[in-house]
Design brief:
The chain is 77% helix and 0% strand. With 105 residues, it is mainly α.
């Protein structure tokens, strides 16, 4: 039986190195997946929590928010040093693209 971390490592090992691919469309697709599957999920949980906290004055995350955030952290926690380097490069590229296209709110 394959552990969840091994599944995550396979995904990270297959997708993250593509951020360094010389083909721009491959890089764009890689950045899209990193954004959708990691960053946006993380931001959605934190945004939902902050909105709920302001309404109910509760600081604790709901079970669903915690489960969603833990699934994202599980994905990132399976990264070795090389994968973290690719992840950092992906985030840096996304920040550069966002700044250049003025998508920062």
């Amino acid at each position: 039986m394959v552990s969840a971390c091994n599944d995550e490592q396979v995904w990270m090992g297959a997708v993250l190195p593509l951020v360094a691919d010389p083909e721009p469309t491959v890089q764009e697709r890689c950045l899209k997946y990193v954004d959708e599957l990691i960053l946006q999920r993380m931001l959605n949980v934190l945004q939902a929590h902050s909105q709920g906290k302001s309404k109910s004055k509760q600081a604790a995350m709901t079970e669903l928010e915690m489960a969603n955030l833990q699934s994202v952290w599980a994905l990132v926690s399976c990264c070795d040093e090389e994968m973290l380097s690719h992840f950092q490069r992906a985030v840096s590229l996304m920040v550069g693209v966002c700044v250049l296209t003025h998508c920062v709110n």
